Amino acid sequence: MIYITxxxxxxxxxxKLLDENFMQHVTAxxxxxxxxDFGLIWKTYEDETEKEWLDFLEEAPYTTLFIDGNHENxxxxxxxxxxxxxxxxxxxQIRPSIYHLMRGQIFTIEHKTFFTMGGATSIDRFLRIxxxxxxxxxxxNETEYKQALINLMKHHNHVDYVLTHCLPTSLQSRxxxxxxxxxxxxxxxxxxxxxxxxxWYCGHYHLDTTLEGRxxxxxxDIISIENEIYTDDIE
Length: 235
Ligand SMILES: [Fe+2]
What we know:
It contains 6 helices and 13 strands. β4 (83-86) and β5 (89-95) form a beta hairpin. With 235 residues, it is α/β, with parallel strands linked by helices. The protein has a single domain, classed as Purple Acid Phosphatase, chain A, domain 2, CATH 3.60.21. The strands form 2 sheets. Strands 4-5-6-3-2-1-13 form a 7-stranded mixed sheet. Strands 7-8-9-10-12-11 form a 6-stranded mixed sheet.
């Protein structure tokens, strides 16, 4: 099974993964995908808290996969971990069973394809310190955008699922907050019109809802992509 959930923010919102019902169901064959703001690679070095939670995920039966949000230490993410090729795409290997799915990649997991495009703008950037609590790499660079388009072209713009941290501009503007567009939401807007996909999963907005039937915004919900029924459209 493939499970998906929203932001962890390090240990702040990780309690959802301790849910008894969830813990009882997951097995070694399962994957848990975090839609950005993983946040367990955040401080200048792996301290005791980060180590404990990364060890917890490593010891959990499932494989943990995450895309990046805006609250990650991008310096560490890109410098401290080896880049590996898994399931058809590039990832950073954090632990033997924890991977950061890089941007603009297409992964095949349980015979389903996933396009990944992490990143988002920190709206409170002016309160943050570059290299300590904010990194310019929170938004993709030109190479990552290009890589995304090339990989999508190779797949004839067909994937089963999309994994992002933020939404395309037009959908984001319908949510109660975080409505300012940026290069990434504009890029996602463009590809949302050319891409054939079943479902689009994102985090970032700290709410659980569905837009237009197939854009699933996740925060505390942990859903299995096989079983979810999409009915809670906020429109
Ligand atoms: Fe977040």
